[in-house]
Amino acid sequence: VDIVMIFIAIGLGMALPYAILLLKPGLLDRLPRGGAWTDIVRQSFGWLLAGAAIFFAQSLFPASVDKALWFAFLAGMMLWVLATSLRATDRASRWAAPLSSLPALALVYLSAGIWPVPSQGIPWQPLEATQIAEIVNLHRPALVEFTAQWCLNCRFLEQTVYGDARVVQALRTRGVVPLQVDLTRPNPELQSLLAAYGGAGLPFVAILNPHGREIGHLSGLFSADALVRGLNAIQP
Questions:
Q1: Which of 46, 65, 106, 212 could join 136 via S-S bond, C-beta 3.0 to 4.6 A?
Q2: Number of domain units in the chain
Q3: From CA 193, how far away is CA 205, in angstroms rounded?
């Protein structure tokens, strides 16, 4: 995935409606007027904010509690959609609740750990704080990914870049050990390791040579090509 193209597509998508209205001003007369459906849309923002609150608070609870919170959120929102649609007296209002709940549903999908795992993905090994000193004893190159449950960009990379066949092949060819650092909950030792590699936020991945020294890192959203180039730079 070309990261630049992603942002270009986002920009074009945001500008397209305005461009169409500039070319066809008469379309303004066809836009839906305000009514009961606009109140429903405003109510849906409350569900989106509630989902955001769960998203940012989930690092404070065990994984089992996170799942229960998301299930309760999803059940409550579905009941609201059903009740609102049944009470609606016009077509626009009946469709307002289901359609306006889609962003909140997307938030649940992205945040609740229900992304499918790539079949050819990287077999990550968890790296705990007590194992940091053992990195230099691997005597093999390593790829250290810093991630968190609340990091949506990390999830995106795990489903795209880290699942890319070229990345997986480069790891196997060079005998790279894939290590994963979970920063879902604060950990001073692991956060110090992130800072030692030059990281300030997530996503972040460090590439280490067989002696345990960092030879490169990538942060934010990056492409599979960039990661493959970094892996190919590993020297014995």
A1: 212
A2: 2
A3: 11
Residue 109: CA count within 13 A, CB half-sphere? 8
pTM for this predicted structure: 0.63
Residue 184: which CATH number? Answer: 3.40.30.10
Matching residue, tokens 């991630």: 147
Which residue do the tokens 């769960």 mark?
Answer: 54
102 & 165 share domain: no
The verdict on 89 and 130 lying in the same domain is no
pLDDT in tens, 167-224: 999 999 999 999 999 998 889 999 999 999 999 899 999 999 999 999 999 999 899 9
Q: Taking a C-beta distance cutoff of 8 angstroms, is the pair 54, 69 a contact? A: yes
User: At 7, is the secondary structure helix, strand, or coil?
Assistant: helix
User: Is the distance from CB of 230 to CB of 169 less than 8 angstroms?
Assistant: no
Burial of 137 (0-12, 13-18, 19+ CB in 10 A): exposed
Query: Tokens 């461009």 identify what position?
Result: 19
Percent of the chain with pLDDT over 70: 92
User: Which residue range forms the structural domain that includes residue 93?
Assistant: 14-111
Tokens of 88: 């609606």
